[in-house]
Amino acid sequence: MGVNKRVAAIKPNAIRAFDDETSGIEGVLKLTLGEPDFTVPEHVKKAAIASIEADESHYAPAAGSVALRKAIHHFMLDRYGLSYDIDSEIIVTLGATEGIYDTFTAFINEGDKVLLPAPNFSMYDPTIELAGGEIVFVDTSDTGFLLTPEQLQAAIDEYGEKLTTVLLNYPANPTGVTYTAEQLSALADVLQGTNITVIADEIYSELTYNAPHTSIAKFLPEQTVILNGVSKSHAMTGYRIGFIVGPKQLVQPAAVLHQFTVTAASNPAMAGAAEALGSAQGKLDSKSMREAYRERRDYLVPALRKLGFEIPQPNGAFYVFAKIPAAYEQDDYAFSVDLAKRGKVAVIPGSVFNVGGEGYIRISYAASLDSLHEAVKRISNFLENY
């Protein structure tokens, strides 16, 4: 059978697989997926409906509608002080997921080394392998789950010109930690003058709790492409609208891949996204969601720490990465299965997220406060009767 060997070697998405495994358990409370529980704002839905009623049913430009690219330009400038040309430096993708595929495939040659700070979102690994790259995992579990300049320099010294790409995801999935402007500046100092491309997955950029988000592109503009979108900021996961922005010389190779794999995104979805990113109300929407997530985090983290879990402070996204207390099963997969079956709470095992994730569980607080209160109650009972 003519199956691509690299494709055949890839396993199904481990997060989805574990979610599927536990979803059939009767009465289980699911805190597994990064799926906002909010509905899409009404003005965004109306913009999508208006696009349908206006018969916008023909192919959009491959790079995305002009209206959405203008909205993305406004969004990046207004929120992060970064300016990108709407004609050559912005590509609308089918979610940030397509952005991951387009950029890795465009930038990686056979045998190139790609640095991933770990634990990391599990979708990066297979995409790198499909492109023929070789992953360099850097264990950040002893450095606050953040890549340090020393670790980055050590990898550059070890791999030299073979290290062509660095992936930075912040605020991070699965840990919820993020970088300060000072920390990003220090990483940029190490990368300055190299030929290394930085892919900055900033899909959770609107969900930061201690300080406004800063992009590494502020310090390293010519070497950085940013992946973002409306899935997390505006609860629009099903609309599948993301975007790639960066300097022309990096964005255009990804744009070629986008043309041949997707052609263009859906017009109604882009109209909704343009309203979300370009309007004053859209900015208020993401702010109100952020405050709701902050309230949930501020309840959940102390409550779990009281039960004995060690947790790095999540200053962004909507995840808690909790170390299983020493008195209990340290195989995070076995612990998570047991918690789902007997405790009726479904989470994601930390080992799914690679090096440094062993012995942890990821809990999504993209759920109501009532659900989180019930989850803590169930987890407490589960531990007491372990």
* Annotation field: number of helices: 13
Largest sheet: 7 strands, mixed
Major beta sheet, strand line-up: 2-8-7-6-5-3-4
Strand content: 5-15%
* Secondary-structure element series: HHEHHEHEHEHEHEEEHHHEHEEEH
Helix-strand makeup class: alpha/beta
Any idea what the CATH superfamily of the largest domain is called?
Answer: Type I PLP-dependent aspartate aminotransferase-like (Major domain)
Portion in helices = 40-55%
Question: What is the CA-CA span between the terminal residues?
Answer: 48 Å
Shape: globular
Tally of discrete structural domains: 2
Give the rounded overall mean pLDDT: 96
Instruction: Report the oligomer.
Output: single chain
Q: Mind telling me which CATH architecture of the largest domain this is?
A: 3-Layer(aba) Sandwich
Ranges where pLDDT stays below 50 over 5 or more residues in a row are none
Radius of gyration: 21 Å
| Structure summary, number of beta strands | 12
CATH top level of the largest domain is Alpha Beta
What is the CATH fold-level name of the largest domain?
Answer: Aspartate Aminotransferase, domain 2
